[in-house]
Prior knowledge:
The protein is α/β, with parallel strands linked by helices. The chain has 2 domains: 16-258, Type I PLP-dependent aspartate aminotransferase-like (Major domain) (Aspartate Aminotransferase, domain 2, 3-Layer(aba) Sandwich); 261-381, Aspartate Aminotransferase, domain 1. The chain has helices spanning 16-21, 32-49, 62-73, 87-98, 116-125, 147-154, 205-213, 223-230, 243-259, 261-281, 308-319, 345-361, 370-381; strands at 5-6, 55-58, 79-84, 102-107, 129-135, 137-138, 143-144, 160-164, 183-187, 199-203, 297-301, 321-322, 324-325, 334-338.
Amino acid sequence: MRKEYMMTPGPTPVPAEVLLSQARPMFHHRTPRFTELLISIEEGLKYIFETKNDVFIFASSGTGVMESSVVNLLSSGDKVICCSNGKFGDRLVKLNETYGMNVIKLEYPWEQVVNPADIKRELDANPDIKAVFVVQSETSTGILNDVKAIGEIVKDYDAVLVVDSITGIGAVECKADEWNLDVVMTGSQKGLMMPPGLAAISVSEKAWTAVEKSTLPKFYFSWKKYADSLHKSEPTTPFTPAVSLIVGLGEAINLMRNEGLENIIKRHAILAEATRAGVEAMGLKLFAPPEGRGNAVTPAWIPDGVDGGKLVKLLKSEYGITVAGGQDYLKGKIFRIGHLGYFDRFDIITTLAGVEMVLAKMDYPVTSGIGVQAAEKVFMDNPF
Ligand SMILES: Cc1ncc(COP(=O)(O)O)c(C=O)c1O
């Protein structure tokens, strides 16, 4: 027998209550039962996104709602800013280019945070910019971009601020209304502790004015269709929803409400701190700079002389621990420990112990237990 530990930043582990709820017999979605569930989920998502705006749920992965933000807000040739300091920022660029946008790219080395002052400079120089796209929690690098500061800038311009918080929501603060984030999105297989398959997006009043002007074709991803259905006297969805996933989401939201958003974010901050302490105690270097470290995933450089691909493989084959490797040019150079969603202290302890053992196997000099000890100290100093 071997236990599996999935320490990746998506998909993430799913609590048993959530899994079991999805095994219940199917029921029809044009029923009071579904309407009641949808209303409560809507309220729950508003709580989690910290917004009064509608939050729409799509049967898609996160990329689907990213795409929906382009097709609902823009028209071909519109000028947009895309900030990119990682793989998912790059995806925002590609998506906008695919739909023929005039993209002003604010590109940064992957080890750097997005500089809000650069956005202000471009907005001042280009009053016709329609939207600013940014990733809050860049999963490929663990970097947290300061969307609060960006919101403070963009609110004074006509442009709409679109935030990919796919690995932010449920792990770090992301206050859609207070921070003037017009469009915020997440995916189910992340902080919502669900299997992949759903994505959610909140849309502000300012964003709706952009929707009115948008001429790009849209059908399945039309926000208007979702708003019309949600605002019916008996709220529903325009198309067949992923009923079982929606049931699971209801259960996941119950768990999140019981823990409380503040506590959830605090737990993630402590898990991230312990992971960082453990990794550094082993003598490894963290990838993300101190000013931009998020709570969702901790990437670390593979030390010299160690085969990065082999480290990830051995963790899995020897100890059943799945961590993520590096993406694109960071393949083989970093590994990433996810702690986003249904994670607790001993997930981190287990993983750090596994990393220590694999490093020892690969003849990297590491004192047995040194990372675990550092993480334990963080946990003992910061009970939750
Ligand atoms: C920050 C971020 N944006 C977008 C995506 C794309 O989401 P999906 O793979 O669900 O389409 C991911 C997925 O890992 C992500 O982490």
